[in-house]
């Protein structure tokens, strides 16, 4: 993957960090988008010279075209986009307000569409590229207390397929990774505070363990590589069998 330029949203921690590191370790110049300056700059310092911190709030949809144009002006190409940034909210269904529901969709869905649209315009100019969206087990089966998150991630999977059909003519592949339960600070906090949910996770995961952020990074890297040149419109669960577990 010579002379490639990637964008990873939400790349300053967790799955995004592991993905950005995988890219950078393989010589891909990677723009790491994060909202928090200190965390994003520190993450890029840890990852190495190929990591470029970009402080940006993706909920500011009107500013996304300018941000993508700035990257394109500097690099002359954008080859890979990983839509990883997202937020969650655990709350009883009847207590979720319209504003809360909209907020989740704004970050997890609207911003993914907006940044993808702008990146595609640039990929068309340079002959193609690869887009990988990040979904969730919440789109594979019903989960309690995360209705807005589930709605957003289910929409991401449908949008992935629609994008793949629309963009194949431009040599742009669009795929989706659906992570299972991965060892991150956010997941640990959520499961440790809810023992019954934690037991449910392990009981229905055939491999009997949680995955690592690097497992997701490896899958994303594959989807963006020449080895996956005939793969588009797929949703790949990377979950130790959780989505099919009994």
UniProtKB/TrEMBL annotation:
Give one GO term, molecular function aspect: glucose 1-dehydrogenase [NAD(P)+] activity
The entry sums up its family as follows: Belongs to the short-chain dehydrogenases/reductases (SDR) family.
Q: What class of enzyme is it?
A: oxidoreductase
Output the InterPro entries linked to this UniProt entry.
NAD(P)-bd_dom_sf, Sc_DH/Rdtase_CS, SDR_fam
Keyword Repeat in record: no
Question: Which Gene3D superfamilies does the UniProt record give?
Answer: NAD(P)-binding Rossmann-like Domain (3.40.50.720)
Please indicate which superkingdom the organism of origin belongs to: Bacteria
Pfam hit, one: adh_short_C2
Q: What EC number(s) has UniProt assigned to this enzyme? A: 1.1.1.47
Q: Which NCBIfam families match?
A: PRK07231.1, PRK12826.1-2
Keyword annotations of the record: Oxidoreductase
The name of this protein is: Glucose 1-dehydrogenase
